[in-house]
Specification:
This protein is of the alpha+beta class. The protein is globular. The N and C termini lie far apart (69 Å). Strand 7 and strand 8 form a beta hairpin. It has helices at 6-21, 25-36, 100-107; strands at 47-56, 59-62, 69-73, 77-83, 110-120, 123-131, 144-151, 154-159, 168-174. The chain folds into two domains: 6-36, no CATH class; 47-174, Lipocalin (Beta Barrel). The protein is 20% helix and 38% strand. Strands 1-3-4-5-6-7-8-9 form an eight-stranded antiparallel β-barrel.
């Protein structure tokens, strides 16, 4: 039989006692957890942004002619909910009896989508996971790349030659 030195035996007895009391795993797991946590870099577009100007195919809307809405960027995800036309949108009334034109007037100029994004240089690539407009979800996983420019609390997102997507330029201001 192998003899265990008294110091080692005392240490083992102490660890067994702490394990039985459920004490030792907490500091050990906490230290392991902290060691594995990497600081997450906050992207420059992180925050909540309000559209103050939009240009689609050469037609610009701003001020009272532009609907309310927000673009929200977390470190990895984005969400967009906004009116994209001249407000106010008409209420469709009873959806069961509304005409196609009434439904289009109410829902057509409304944007709702969310997904993930990546930034590289002056490009932001958004991959839409869910959207009101199903066509926005069908980029084949490649996403849509747009050029961005940040000047103080003003963010401009515009199409890029290689990015695909619609010819839309947005000017946004940081609200949070």
């Amino acid at each position: 039989m192998t003899r265990v030195p008294a110091f080692t035996a005392g240490l083992l007895a102490g660890m067994v006692s702490m394990a039985m009391l459920g004490i030792w795993p907490l500091p050990v797991l906490g230290a392991v957890s902290l060691a594995q946590t990497k600081p997450q870099q906050v992207p420059p577009i992180y925050g909540v942004w309000q559209v103050v100007e939009q240009t689609i195919d050469g037609r610009t809307l701003s001020g009272v002619n532009l609907g309310l809405g927000f673009h929200i960027y977390t470190p990895k995800y984005f969400a967009v909910v906004r009116e994209s036309g001249t407000p106010p949108r008409p209420a469709p009334g009873n959806a069961d009896t509304a005409t196609a034109a009434q439904l289009l007037a109410a829902w057509g100029p409304f944007v709702a989508q969310a997904g993930t994004y990546e930034m590289s240089g002056d490009m932001v690539t958004e991959r839409v996971l869910v959207a009101k407009d199903v066509a926005n979800m069908q980029s084949g996983g490649a996403g849509v790349a747009r050029r961005y420019r940040l000047e103080g609390n003003t963010l401009t997102i515009e199409p890029s030659r290689e990015g695909g997507g619609r010819n839309v330029t947005l000017k946004l201001i940081r609200v949070e």
